[in-house]
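wait is this the right file?? whatever heres the structure
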């Protein structure tokens, strides 16, 4: 069961990227840049590059390049809060609204593909189980001192 799930997880990712391909071409952005925009839009309280790196398990250098490109294109701006120059916050700008709206449509379409034929109770139970799995993965990946 578990090996089959993980083998199929590559297909989950492939479908997601396939659905996003027209958006990437339309706005001339990369999948990483779309992922950064969608992360910031879907997680408004997690608005730093560090949040993206930690929650999405992406490399700092890739996120940095993606953020630089999005700032240059006018989709994001960097800001500091209360004079704290160590933490740079990322803010979506109005030109990103159209990309985010299209991305949310794609994410909705993706969810519909995955959950076709499931009832509300099944979806709720599945979400609960997947959250527990995600928590277990995060715990396993955390430094050993935090696992005790």
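ok assuming it is, sequence goes like this
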């Amino acid at each position: 069961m578990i090996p089959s799930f993980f083998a199929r997880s590559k297909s989950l990712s492939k479908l997601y990227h396939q659905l996003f391909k027209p958006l990437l071409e339309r706005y001339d952005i990369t999948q990483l840049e779309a992922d950064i925009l969608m992360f910031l839009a879907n997680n408004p309280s997690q608005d730093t590059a560090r949040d993206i790196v930690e929650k999405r398990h992406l490399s700092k250098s890739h996120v940095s390049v993606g953020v630089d490109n999005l700032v240059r294109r006018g989709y994001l701006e960097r800001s500091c809060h209360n004079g704290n120059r160590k933490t740079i916050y990322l803010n979506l700008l109005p030109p990103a609204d159209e990309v985010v709206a299209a991305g949310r449509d794609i994410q909705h379409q993706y969810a519909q593909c995955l959950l076709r034929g499931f009832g509300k109770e099944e979806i709720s139970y599945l979400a609960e189980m997947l959250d527990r799995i995600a928590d277990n993965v995060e715990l396993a990946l955390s430094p050993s001192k935090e696992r005790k």
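The longest strand covers residues 84-92. so i think its the right one actually
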